[in-house]
Each structure stands twice: as structure tokens, then as C-alpha cells.
Design brief:
The model has no long low-confidence stretch (mean pLDDT 96). The protein is built from twelve helices and 19 strands. By secondary structure, the chain is of the alpha/beta class. Helix 5 runs parallel beside helix 6 and helix 5 packs across helix 11. The longest helix has 13 residues.
């Protein structure tokens, strides 16, 4: 079967090969035919080594498709079911799950070290234990979440990561208050979803910050009240908050420099929500006096900071009701053979989300 493969970390382009086999099927597993997958910035971060991932590997974790087969012991799923991919399934039994923090369960991460593909030359891993830039993939049954018939595969794929992450940051983690002021730094698919979440929560001012003009224009369509380039953020802070700072600032880039900017743009007593996935060796600095004196809340948000299954259901309900725009997030579409076009579109900032149709 065909799959896009990164042979070694630091490789700029993927190679689409037709000699890849999905392996590992057995008890507790399902085989999925991927129909649509989004390119998330985390995939590119894994390619360049920002996020740890053994190689060679098949990127992709934001996917949807149909179940081809189910292994022994799998209940609630059958061949033919339409599903989205959950790259961080909760085991339901660990300490995090028992505390109601299933999004912090490490069971899914354990899968990242087990190859789920093979080529004639050896084993191939799937990014984050999944790997959706392929025609078929074998994953734990918990990764396959049934979706209603009226949800298209491309919409379901977005809900599988970017939409859930951005909406959840505003709704679950930050709990944006009605009438508040918000700034969102980084307006790709996740940042735009955070903007939509802040709008749903009733924020009065939502300032989108991004260096790419087309993304700033898009942010206005999705609910931002103003969109500025990074160098104009200080002026927006002065005009909108009289220099005090925003009630909520979302960092959706994953860099120490933008996190520091986000902290300085947050008012005293306000909330900085860190959403971007960054590198382990990229350190952000705070001094002990400012942490004590400013009393700003620093809240990291992983995968939307809440029960992911409930978050999927909420996103579908909001999409059905026309309260959020998901189709508009997909600005480009390419076949699997055009995967490197999708990577280029993301790196340039041209795309909010590119859907790879398989």
C-alpha cells in the first residue's frame, strides 16, 4: 500500500512509497482505511526534530476513515464503521484517568515506540503511535472513535486534533469569561479554533496576531475583532487595554520568544494559555519577582485540556448548529502524492489546514 515516509529526522520532504505494510493487527486492534487527514504543525515538528519521534516514520495523526477489520476482544466497533482518529486515547485505568484527566493519560504515548508499519528494509513507526499519511493503519481500538453519518471525513479529521485543541484551550483550559479581552498569537488551524472558542465564550475583543497577511484576514472571518502583525501587538495592547494587557493571551506557536511576548501582553492577574507544542531544549525565562508580583496564571493546554471524547461530541454539535465553521478551515486539498505541497503550504503560512484526500 502507499504511505508517505520520513526516513530520518531533519528530512525536508516525505517520500510516497507503495511498498509499506500496516502491521500489528491482532487482539485489541483495528485496521482503518484512511479517507482524509489533515496536516498539523506537529507533524512538521516531528519531521524536523522539534518533537521527539523515532524514525523512519509515517507522519499524520489527524485522520478519519472506515474500519476494515477488528481484532479479538474489541467491542463497540465493527467493520464498516466511520471513525476519526484519536492520537491520545485514554486507558481509563491509570491515575490520570481516575482523576478525570484522561487527556494526560500516557498509554497512547507508549504506542509511539512500537512500529505499526513495515517495509522490505525494516520497521517503520507511526507518528504519535498512529500515522495517517497512508492508505491503511493498524491502531489500538481506543484510537478509533465512531462518528455520525452526517459528518464528512475531512471535517472529522480536523476534530481529531486541531479543532479540539484550539476550542478546548479557550473553553476547557482558560475558561474565557464573557466580555473579556483576548489575544491569540499564531493563527493557523489551532489558533483559528482558539479564536472560535473565545468567540463562543463571549469575549468582547479578540485580537489575532500573525505575521502572514492571509492568516490575519482569515482570523477576522472566524471571529477576531482585530488582526495585527506581531510588531503591532504592542500598539493593540495600548489601544484596547490602555496598556494594562489582555485578560487572556493564547500562545499557539510553540516558541519561547512568543511565550515571553504572550506573558508580557497578559495583564496582571490575567491568564496566559500555552497551546503551541515546542522543543524540549527551548527554555522560556521568568524571574521570581514577576511570577509572585504579577500573579498571572500560566496554563498549558494539551489536546484541549479536557475529556477528548466529550470534546469531539461538543465540536460536532457546535458544527451542526452552525456555531463554528470547520469547512472554512480547509484552505487547500491535495492527494497523498501531493503531500509535499501540503508541507510547503504549511511552512509558508499559506494554508490554515490542508486536507490530504486518500
Amino acid at each position: 500500500m502507499r504511505a508517505a515516509v520520513v526516513h530520518e529526522i531533519g528530512q525536508d520532504k516525505l517520500e510516497v512509497l507503495d511498498d509499506v505494510e500496516a502491521v500489528g493487527f491482532g487482539p485489541g486492534k483495528v485496521r482503518i482505511r484512511i479517507r482524509a487527514t489533515g496536516l498539523c504543525h506537529s507533524d512538521v515538528s516531528a519531521m524536523n526534530g522539534v518533537l521527539p519521534q523515532p524514525a523512519p516514520f509515517v507522519p499524520g495523526h489527524e485522520g478519519a476513515g472506515e474500519i476494515l477489520d477488528v481484532g479479538d476482544g474489541v467491542s463497540g466497533l465493527s467493520a464498516g464503521d466511520r471513525v476519526l482518529m484519536c492520537w491520545l486515547p485514554a486507558c481509563g485505568a491509570c491515575a490520570s484517568c481516575r482523576r478525570g484527566q484522561g487527556h494526560l493519560c500516557l498509554a497512547g504515548f507508549m504506542n509511539a515506540g512500537t512500529p505499526n508499519f513495515r517495509r522490505p528494509g525494516g520497521d517503520v513507526f507511526g507518528f504519535a503511535g498512529t500515522g495517517t499519511f497512508t492508505e491503511e493503519v493498524v491502531v489500538d481500538a481506543g484510537c478509533a472513535v465512531p462518528i455520525p453519518d452526517d459528518v464528512p471525513f475531512d471535517i472529522a479529521a480536523l476534530i481529531g486534533c486541531g479543532v479540539t485543541t484550539g476550542l478546548g484551550a479557550a473553553i476547557n483550559t482558560a475558561k474565557v469569561e464573557t466580555g473579556s479581552s483576548v489575544a491569540v498569537i499564531g493563527c493557523g488551524g489551532v489558533g483559528i479554533s482558539a479564536i472560535q472558542g473565545a468567540k463562543l465564550r463571549g469575549a468582547a475583543q479578540i485580537v489575532a496576531v500573525d505575521p502572514v497577511a492571509s492568516r490575519r484576514e482569515a482570523a477576522l472571518r472566524f471571529g477576531a475583532t482585530e488582526a495585527v502583525a506581531p510588531e503591532a501587538l504592542g500598539d493593540a495592547k495600548q489601544r484596547i487595554t490602555a496598556g494594562e494587557g489582555f485578560d487572556y493571551v493564547f500562545e499557539v506557536v510553540g516558541k519561547s520568544a512568543t511565550t515571553r511576548t504572550a506573558y508580557e501582553t497578559t495583564r496582571r492577574g490575567g491568564t496566559l494559555c500555552v497551546v503551541g507544542a515546542g522543543a524540549m531544549d527551548d527554555h522560556v525565562r521568568f524571574n521570581m519577582f514577576e511570577l509572585f508580583f504579577d500573579e498571572k496564571r500560566i496554563l498549558p493546554s494539551l489536546y484541549g485540556g479536557g475529556d477528548v471524547l466529550r470534546s469531539y461530541e461538543r465540536a460536532i454539535a457546535l458544527w451542526r448548529a452552525g456555531r463554528i465553521d470547520l469547512a472554512g478551515l480547509i484552505t487547500h486539498r491535495v492527494p497523498l502524492a501531493g503531500i509535499n505541497d501540503a508541507v510547503a503550504q504549511m511552512r509558508s503560512g499559506e494554508a490554515l489546514r490542508t486536507c490530504i484526500e486518500i
